[in-house]
Design a protein that fits this description.
Elements lengths: L1 H11 L1 E4 L3 E8 L2 E3 L4 E3 L2 E7 L7 H11 L3 H22 L1 E4 L3 E5 L5 E5 L9 E2 L11 E4 L2 E4 H8 L10 H22 L2
Antiparallel strand pairs: 1-2, 2-5, 3-4, 4-9, 6-7, 7-8, 10-11
Helix pairs in contact: 2-3
Amino acid sequence: MYNAIRKFFALHHHISLPGIGSFLVETQPAQLDFTNRSISSAKNRIVFNNDKLPPEKKFYEFLSHELKVDEVQAIRNFTDYTARLNDDLNKNHTLYFKGIGTLTRQTSHAVNFQPEEMPDYSPSLTAERIIRKNASHTVRVGEEERTSEEMQTVLHQPQKAKKERWWIAAAILGVIGIAAIIFYYTMHR
């Protein structure tokens, strides 16, 4: 019976065990870690929920096909099997499902689940930027996109020395100040 349940779980990524709870496979998307310059692959993890919902009809159809019995007999067999599992969980307070994880009874209504470690078939990859010399690529500058050659010519052009002309503005302000002082003294004399 367990092999048929495990096969359904592997194919459909969810299974509900009446009186115990339901298992679900969640997929965590791939993660990009900028600081360590690595990309980790997507990972599956098994989650347990205390919902004691009955399995759906396609599970019973699948089970009757796997056990080579009619659907009514498959429902009876499955109900008996889950009742035995629930009794074992109540007596021993732990229940191990090979390839899935371990259930531990905390209280009469709460069950703790510890998933089995899944092997990591695809390790993290290093993600380093590669810039080749003399290879053209686009560079975003403000709102514009330019090629690397255009930016090299702009960056390596000799800068023209700007003549400092701050003194012209200072001289004009000085002349205006002196004219204001002279105007003030000539009017108040």
